[in-house]
């Protein structure tokens, strides 16, 4: 099923007439329903029991030490910095209004508000943006439609849908995630100059991220890039030395740009709406 799903997606992913992701999702729901019937399970679709969650002191301790702090590097990299850079790479001709400050603020507010009602942690992941772009989304309307559907389905049928999705074929989900990963990787590769230093850092980061985790991969890749760039400033040809120095200046400029963009939020409601819709 995985090979069939991946083949179908690769054939029709650029088609303007076939909504690839929607077709595969509906097919997966049909398969999940058939599996439920075969297993003899009974699913009751009902509205969720929404109530305010009362946290204990131990809940805060566990949540902060085991949840929030370990998640900080991944959230900052994927949900704030990477998604803003990806939006610029995918839509360079648009004034999206997306920046690290507004995105990080919206992510924080979403989680602070909905955690009191049992909401799961959420973010504007770059993988989600890459997947939406890969499967045809080009405007804010696609995000509005997606958000409305998810809100209504969760509000009206959440309990039954949760049980149904447990039977959703992992092969279909894996194929969709693989295509999203390819889109994200292609976007990052297109932003590179193709120099050996960048390719080495790219491969090192990918390998350590895959086998150790996002935080470890980021730190090791960053250290590897700086070490290679540093030593390249003193060895090699004149062209290589000048390129290494140029890369160091570029990295310094990018770092200053991101650090200065992280400031207390002072944007209007119009900017909030535009940035939130553009970076989901």
TrEMBL record:
Matches recorded under InterPro entries: MOT1/MOT2 (IPR031563)
Record has Hydrolase as a keyword: no
Superkingdom classification of source: Eukaryota
Coiled-coil parts of chain: none
Transmembrane segments: 109-129, 141-161, 167-187, 199-228
Descriptive protein name: SLC26A/SulP transporter domain-containing protein
This protein's UniProt keywords: Membrane, Transmembrane, Transmembrane helix
Keyword Transmembrane: yes
Native source organism of the sequence: Guillardia theta
């Amino acid at each position: 099923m995985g090979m069939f799903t991946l083949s179908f997606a690769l054939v029709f992913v650029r088609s303007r007439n076939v909504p690839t992701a929607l077709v595969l999702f509906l097919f997966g729901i049909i398969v999940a329903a058939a599996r439920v019937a075969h297993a003899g399970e009974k699913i009751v679709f009902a509205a969720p029991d929404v109530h305010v969650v009362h946290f204990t002191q131990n809940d805060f301790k566990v949540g902060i030490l085991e949840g929030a702090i370990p998640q900080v590097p991944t959230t900052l990299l994927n949900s704030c910095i990477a998604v803003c850079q990806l939006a610029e790479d995918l839509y360079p001709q648009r004034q999206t209004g997306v920046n690290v400050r507004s995105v990080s603020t919206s992510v924080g507010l979403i989680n602070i508000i909905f955690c009191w009602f049992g909401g799961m942690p959420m973010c504007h992941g770059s993988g989600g943006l890459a997947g939406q772009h890969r499967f045809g989304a080009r405007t804010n309307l696609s995000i509005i439609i997606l958000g409305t559907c998810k809100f209504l389905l969760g509000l009206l049928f959440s309990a039954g849908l949760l049980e149904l999705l447990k039977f959703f074929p992992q092969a279909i989900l894996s194929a969709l995630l693989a295509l999203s990963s390819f889109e994200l990787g292609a976007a990052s590769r297109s932003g590179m100059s193709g120099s050996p230093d960048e390719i080495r850092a790219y491969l090192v980061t990918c390998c350590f991220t895959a086998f150790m985790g996002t935080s470890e991969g980021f730190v090791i890749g960053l250290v590897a890039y700086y070490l290679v760039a540093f030593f390249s400033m003193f060895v090699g040809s004149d062209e290589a030395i000048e390129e290494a120095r140029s890369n160091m200046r570029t990295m310094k400029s990018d770092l200053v740009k991101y650090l200065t963009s992280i400031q207390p939020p002072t944007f209007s409601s119009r900017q909030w709406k535009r940035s939130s819709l553009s970076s989901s």
